[in-house]
């Protein structure tokens, strides 16, 4: 059975289209001409046609049936050439053969119903699997969004959709053998490799400070440097304790001058000069020279170091790709510069006052720290350059490490979902295997039915039935006869023997093609398809028909509806499309009710701005009342055959008196005063209740014109005697 139909991009259906879902065994679709009914019937009949490439049909258990559609194309196809293909039915089978076929069909039906149940179970399991897949897909995608800022470039190629990312992550969880790295390391590598393709970096110049420590630890800085002690003036200088002062004063002695630079008296003679020179001898001067040379060497060594460090600081502070911890580096550089300046001041003091001992601060710790920073930076630079030299390989290693990191973070979810999906898949495969086996059994049973049908089918019963119905409904001027030029084909022939194909009225063609369709619905054009299950589509079968024939067609369709609901024929689902309100009401009036049931649904097609739309009504019949149409049948009965008059009177009396007036048959009869009138009323009611529930199928039908006139007069008096003549006159247009 068809569960839903979606139609779009064809005829009056736009790209959004319409969907008819929750379809039932019986489906009434009402709509005005041109609103898209025939498009639906054409699509259902030939769903593979290129016009319907964007349309879709959902079958129960994905098991399609053959579709037989009655519409204008059906009439043209089967009656356009003047010959009609014979319809095979089970008309000549023995009772034993029919029982065997019925038994096989029952078994086939049971297998199909079991498969539908299995398919329902399969669908539920597949829904669970899909829900689990969607849930874990969302979890995987949430993980990606968490690290999107860090790893988007590395994951590019697998993030086009949630599903592709999930699948990649699941694959990596099974195959990736990389070590799990921490997030900081991965971020750094990702920034180096993927922000933009990196280029090689130059190593930082390393410093050498082996000469600094001996200079800063030189014993000369703490040595007391004074003149000779065995000179006469030595005791005096020692007593005053100002050897450095005396030494500095020598620089102020003017040649041949006797003025003392210290007291400004004429106390300096040649002997005093000689003693000073002897006190501050070559040894003293050598020591002073050593001090000056050591200072200069210290300055020279440090000038190279500080120059190199300041150059590194200057360049790396503006280098966005620096690997140097620049803040720590500059802090150590400031400390080194400070120590150097302080030590230089101490040495200068020592040179000016050789007799004083000074102790220099050590800069070795700071120099060692700054050298370590340079070494660490160069290691990072070398690693970076290795990445550059092996860029493609390093990028792949990075990506692998990132996938491993992500898979590890979601490992619990992945493992749990994998186990759950595995269990569901095992169940699905088991159910599918069961379904496939039943499908094979169904195929085998269908082949058995085909063989049985070949032995018992014939085209003649269908021809006989069509001719019987034509006679029964008053079409006696033509019949179906064998076509002389082709076996198992027939033509429409008049009583005189001439073929009537070209001379039939449109209404006659419509009626006879509908009868042919009814027989085809019960059989098939070949022997193999006689017992095949099918879906029937009936599109406006009452075009150009008189109202009495319309009632006949409605009655036939009612039988088809009943058989479809009861599963007594080959039809498993029925679609009825019409623009005729009265036909819709007649065909949908079942078991004394106009609304549907659990097996019946109603739709209305509408077209606005040349675009078709559909409106579902479920079990509620949207064609609310045919009461006025019933009265129209009473007024126009003389222009029709009168065959619907009985049913029309019953429907009016039921609606107006029994339902609205709460009166039964006896109540109505008692409203008449004379015995004769009561008898006429009783006979009318008996005639109504007898005739309105049947369609005459005798070979000859007597037109009820005489009795109709008599009883219509009584029908009018029923309204007069019940005080409702005003309603009668209003409905008949007499007021």
Instruction: Briefly note the CATH topology name of the largest domain.
Output: Rossmann fold
Q: What is the residue-averaged pLDDT?
A: 80
The structure class reads alpha/beta
Q: What is Rg?
A: 57 Å
Give the percentage of residues in beta strands.
5-15%
* Record field, number of beta strands: 12
Distance between the termini: 52 Å
Q: Helix content range of the residues, please?
A: 55-70%
The coarse overall form would be rod-shaped
Q: Just give the CATH class of the largest domain.
A: Alpha Beta
Instruction: Give a short account of the largest sheet.
Output: 6 strands, mixed
Q: Descriptors for this entry?
A:
25 helices, single chain, Rossmann fold, P-loop_NTPase, 735 residues, three-stranded antiparallel beta sheet
In brief:
The protein has 735 residues and is α/β, with parallel strands linked by helices.
How would you characterize this protein structure?
- The chain has 735 residues and is α/β, with parallel strands linked by helices.
- It has 5 domains: 269 residues, Rossmann fold (3-Layer(aba) Sandwich), CATH 3.40.50; 163 residues; 92 residues; 53 residues, no CATH class; 105 residues, no CATH class.
- The chain has 25 helices and 12 strands.
- The strands form 3 sheets. The chain has a 6-stranded mixed beta sheet, with helices on both faces. Strands 2-1-4 form a 3-stranded antiparallel beta sheet, with helices on one face. It has a 3-stranded antiparallel beta sheet with strand order 6-8-7.
- α18 links the parallel β9 and β10.
